[in-house]
Amino acid sequence: MTLQETFGARLRRAMDTRGPLCVGIDPHASLLTAWGLNDDVDGLERFTRTTVEALADRVAVLKPQSAFFERFGSRGIAVLEKAVAEARAAGALVLMDAKRGDIGSTMGAYAETYLRKDSPLFSDAVTVSPYLGFGSLRPALDQAVLSGCGVFVLALTSNPEGAEVQRSTAAGGKSLAQVMLDHMAAENADAQPLGPVGAVVGATLGDAGVDLDINGPLLAPGIGAQGATPADLPGVFGAAVRNVVPSVSRGVLKHGPDAAGLRDAAARFADEIRAAVASV
């Protein structure tokens, strides 16, 4: 695996060979407690190391939630840096769930943090928010192409509050989410097999009610603890379901700290997702 390949090619191969599954690394205080760990840096490090060692050599994507590391300051970020490097070395693609969004040089600095090859937090992709205007993401979009990485843009999220912004009507009569999806499709035009710009669309939405044909990956959080199941994916994503990267966090992590339990849970979800996709 080299970064001379496009992100879309690397992601497609990872999903085809390892299964279409993204597992979140979300060290909630409640999960640390459930694992018998203290809610401190040592507990964070043990939780993260166990998850990476159990899953990084077999799942397509690992998605650390940056906030749960940031809350411990520089020592937490050090744990995150090590996890990113070790997960990528084991063959997993790392999607940094940071949801950054800003303008100008600040957005450029975020892009360099996660998408520049010599950064300690260099990841295969990062989540970003477009709601300062899609054009505000240009530094991240450009850096992603330069580094062979991806950017996942919030479109229709699984939290109920998101609808008041994302479902609002933009100029021209389309929903704001559809406007953002149209921008993503334009960025991905003519890319093969997938473009570098993905959309975040919640698996809990039922019929999404938007055109998801963006020629890019669709990150689908909400499976497991949030109530969606693999069987729900065809109804939400329709013909685009083969490009979906379903994301499960607590549904897998609750089976730790036993490494075999984590692996078995991830394998079950991957198998169920394959079956759901094959039914379309």
UniProtKB/TrEMBL annotation:
Enumerate the InterPro entries for this protein.
Aldolase_TIM, OMPdecase_AS, OMPdecase_type-2, OMPdeCOase_dom, RibuloseP-bd_barrel
Query: What PROSITE patterns does the entry give?
Result: OMPDECASE
Q: Which residues form the active site?
A: 99
Q: Name one GO biological process term.
A: 'de novo' pyrimidine nucleobase biosynthetic process
- Is Lyase among this UniProt entry's keywords? yes
Under catalytic activity, the entry for this protein gives:
orotidine 5'-phosphate + H(+) = UMP + CO2
The EC number(s) attached to this protein equal 4.1.1.23
According to its UniProt record, this protein's enzyme class is lyase
Annotated keywords: Decarboxylase, Lyase, Pyrimidine biosynthesis
- A GO molecular-function descriptor: orotidine-5'-phosphate decarboxylase activity
Q: Which ranges carry the Orotidine 5'-phosphate decarboxylase domain? A: 20-265
Q: In which pathway does it act?
A: Pyrimidine metabolism; UMP biosynthesis via de novo pathway; UMP from orotate: step 2/2
Family per similarity comment: Belongs to the OMP decarboxylase family. Type 2 subfamily.
Q: Which PANTHER family match?
A: OROTIDINE 5'-PHOSPHATE DECARBOXYLASE
Name this protein carries in UniProt: Orotidine 5'-phosphate decarboxylase
Q: Which organism is it from?
A: Streptomyces pristinaespiralis (strain ATCC 25486 / DSM 40338 / CBS 914.69 / JCM 4507 / KCC S-0507 / NBRC 13074 / NRRL 2958 / 5647)
